[in-house]
Design goal:
Helix content is 42%, strand content 29%. The chain is an alpha/beta fold and 196 residues long. It has one domain: 3-Layer(aba) Sandwich (Rossmann fold). Strands 1, 2, 3, 4, 5 and 6 form a six-stranded mixed beta sheet that branches. Helix 3 runs parallel beside helix 6. The longest helix has 25 residues. The protein is elongated, with a radius of gyration of 23 Å. The termini are far apart.
């Protein structure tokens, strides 16, 4: 009887170890990098550098995804652009494409790259009796790239308006108008991560 119990215990322990190994590889969190392509005023804006990673964390649950630090992906993007002579001056650089993002993602061992391209229209000014407003339109082009296949899993474009108003001899803020439009676009952004 003792031998039978010992034999069953031995089989159970091997099964548990094999299952644990399979569990570790099957349920390993996927790594996601955030890449932001935007006018320099956006990229260097502290509000945007906080807002975008917070939204990404809300989309990708912690138990299933590891998010690379934004500073790390931002540095990798800048280094890639420098190495490939894509930076024209301190205000403008050539945009990266899917292959560029795939190469950067591979160098960071990422499974997915969330690539956000922000463009804005020219500011518009309107005035009332005692107020002045700046308005702008922001286009937020969001793409989720599978690094291994080089294919987009998600591709969305969200267009939102932002506004900043000053009353009685005040000066409205362009930054506030841009940030409001971007915040609206990010609030509308949803990605179904259940199949990733």
């Amino acid at each position: 009887m003792k031998r039978i119990l010992l034999f069953l215990l031995l089989i159970f322990s091997f099964t548990a170890v094999a299952y644990a190994d399979n569990f570790d590889t099957e349920y390993q969190p996927k790594t996601v990098g955030i890449f932001l392509e935007a006018p320099m005023s956006y990229v260097n804006n502290e509000i945007v550098r906080t807002m975008v990673p917070e939204k990404v964390r809300a989309i990708f649950p912690k138990f299933k995804f590891d998010i690379l630090p934004y500073d790390k992906t931002d540095m990798a993007l800048r280094t890639y652009k420098e190495d490939n002579r894509m930076i024209v001056n301190q205000y403008y650089s050539q945009p990266v494409n899917r292959k560029d993002i795939q190469q950067i993602g591979q160098s960071l061992n990422a499974d997915y790259a969330l690539f956000i391209i922000i463009t804005n229209g020219p500011p518009r000014v309107s005035s009332g009796l005692l107020s002045v407003s700046f308005k702008t339109t922001v286009t937020c082009d969001v793409r989720l790239l599978n690094i291994a296949t080089g294919e987009y899993v998600v591709s969305k474009q969200i267009i939102k308006d932002g506004k900043s108003t000053a009353i009685y001899a005040g000066v409205p803020s362009f930054d506030k108008a841009y940030n409001e439009a971007l915040e609206k676009a990010l609030q509308e952004l949803t990605i179904d991560t259940s199949s990733l």
